[in-house]
Amino acid sequence: AQKITQTQPGMFVQEKEAVTLDCTYDTSDQSYGLFWYKQPSSGEMIFLIYQGSYDEQNATEGRYSLNFQKARKSANLVISASQLGDSAMYFCAMREPDYGGSQGNLIFGKGTKLSVKP
Amino acid sequence: DAGVTQSPTHLIKTRGQQVTLRCSPKSGHDTVSWYQQALGQGPQFIFQYYEEEERQRGNFPDRFSGHQFPNYSSELNVNALLLGDSALYLCASSSEIGNQPQHFGDGTRLSIL
């Protein structure tokens, strides 16, 4: 069964506007972590933001915020004030279980290609 | 502070050959994971090494093997290459201490002719 679903193959956003990239996940674990990575055309996966399943507040990192809705099993990424350099592939990933000292493997979605228009 | 480094950047092989890819983890990291990313797909977990042993393995055949050295660097070996092995191979490192994200290298782009 697919564990991470990203339903938007491609998205367009105007420069300086906000954009939301969707991610839903499936797990029966109580402990899990959700991640967003950015992959430019160069190939490197750049870590953006992390949300633990027990975190009560939504994670924020600069212009990135994660809209975590546990009951709906969704972890959408919000990018505010889009910049041309934000154009890239964005991947949602899950790590289960997710507790200190254990480096479980990441399960990735298929990604969303974001294009920022000037 | 050097990040995760992978070599080579690109590689072209023919079917049936063997290949070795290399990875040096980020300074302070002791765990190395390998992922295969086919064109248009998200990365898929191959295996993870910690304390020079394979700790976890994804759904990949035995043709895929690895090694971790005392300095935490790692190699990914693929034998009897198939056309379907053409992909971007990503190495990620992390620390066993704390709940930290994995940091990725730029990857090795492997093409099989």
Give an overview in words.
The complex is a heterodimer of chains A (118) and B (113). Chain A is mainly β and 118 residues long. Chain A has no helices and 12 strands. Chain A has strands at residues 4-5, 10-14, 19-21, 24-25, 33-39, 46-52, 60-61, 64-69, 74-79, 88-95, 106-108, 112-117. Chain A is globular and about 40 Å long. With 113 residues, chain B is an all-beta fold. Chain B is built from no helices and 11 strands. Chain B has strands at 5-7, 10-13, 19-24, 31-37, 44-50, 53-57, 64-68, 74-78, 87-94, 103-104, 108-112. In chain B, the strands form 2 sheets. In chain B, strands 2, 4, 5, 6, 9, 10 and 11 form a 7-stranded mixed sheet that branches. A 4-stranded antiparallel sheet of chain B has the order 1-3-8-7, with no helix packed on it. In chain B, a hairpin with a 5-residue loop joins strand 7 (64-68) and strand 8. Chain B is globular, with a radius of gyration of 13 Å. In chain B, 36% of the residues are buried. The model of chain B has no long low-confidence stretch (mean pLDDT 93). Classes of the chains: A mainly beta (118), B mainly beta (113). Chains A and B meet through strand 5, strand 6 and strand 11 of A and strand 4, strand 5, strand 9 and strand 10 of B.
